[in-house]
Write a structure and sequence with these properties.
This protein is of the alpha/beta class and 306 residues long. The protein has 9 helices and 14 strands.
């Protein structure tokens, strides 16, 4: 796995929208966040609302071209996805694997960007960063900003810390070590049966999601279980489940019950409630990096950057 060089003050960072369009009023605050970090933002065509194609930021060709050009351009130091939404997985067949392998760069984002994380991790051997994005969280709080800076400038290693109000819980006791993989549950499930299906054999599987009814979470976790993903992985980290409400609260399973019915039987060490995902207070994670987890002590340790 290639660990990209961390960014630095003055680094030129390509901003691009591989999925949904960025409303005009959200572009400037995103640029402002980059500049406040000391970065020089370089917005690509997909960032401009005028280029949208239906519910996409731009055509598949344009969005993929933005990614390929950003990796190929020697004056660009890193690539930060400006937002998620829907559509990143449509770009996988259009990405230039050889150029990305030859010119690896810092790459960050989350949510729908999970499709690109998986592609870059597995096809290109590139470590990537599950981190907040500039148009969705232009004013991150101190905790989120601290982890964002670690992901961007280096130092995202060692034992993860948790906010006092977001203490994780042990779902299955035990410890495990492996490469961290995963991200948004719905994107991972949609990868099954494709050439870019998530490979979690011997790895630590991280999952989170937003805006899904509990029965949909049940369905997607059942699909992962039936596809052998919980059997194959070494351990499981569950992040935030934002606005994942039951359709009929009076007769449904809670998320906790769903986890216990579908994940606990695997016997793999599992921690629930990691503060990461579609939440205001979120840490950053290096996908493709080796980590250690101890579900009994609720400890997650990221190995040092290469």
């Amino acid at each position: 796995m290639i660990t990209p060089k961390p960014l630095f003050p003055g680094a030129r960072v390509a901003l691009l929208a591989p999925a949904s369009a960025v409303p005009d009023e959200k572009l400037q605050p995103a640029l402002d966040l980059c500049q406040s970090l000391g970065l020089e933002p370089v917005p690509y065509p997909s960032c401009y609302f005028r280029n949208r194609d239906g519910y996409f930021a731009a055509s598949d060709t344009q969005r993929a071209e933005d990614i390929n050009r950003a990796f190929a351009d020697p004056t660009i130091d890193g690539i930060w996805c400006i937002r998620g939404g829907y559509g990143a997985h449509r770009l996988q067949p259009l990405l230039d694997v050889e150029t990305i392998r030859k010119k690896p760069k810092w790459f960050g984002g989350y949510s729908d960007i999970t499709a690109l994380h998986t592609f870059l991790n597995q096809e290109c051997g590139l470590e990537t960063y599950h981190c907040t994005m500039p148009s969705t969280e232009p004013h991150p709080n101190d905790y989120t900003l601290d982890y964002l800076k670690k992901a961007v400038f280096g130092g995202l290693s060692g034992t993860l810390t948790y906010p006092q109000e977001q203490t994780p819980v042990t779902l299955v006791p035990g410890s495990a070590q492996g490469i961290l993989c995963g991200g948004n549950l719905s994107l991972i499930v949609s990868s099954i049966g494709t050439p870019w299906e998530l490979d979690c054999k011997g790895k630590i599987l991280f999952l989170e999601d937003i805006g899904e009814k509990t029965y949909r979470i049940d369905s997607m976790l059942t699909q992962l279980r039936n596809a052998g993903k919980f059997r194959d992985c070494a351990g499981i980290l569950l992040g935030a489940w934002t606005d994942c409400e039951p359709e009929m609260p009076q007769r449904t399973l809670s998320l906790e019950e769903i986890f216990r019915q579908l994940i606990v039987p695997s016997g793999k060490p599992a921690i629930a409630g990691i503060p990461c995902g579609h939440c205001d207070t979120t840490l950053a994670l290096p996908l493709g990096r080796s980590i250690r987890m101890d579900a009994d002590s609720l400890t997650v340790v990221l190995e040092k950057e290469a």
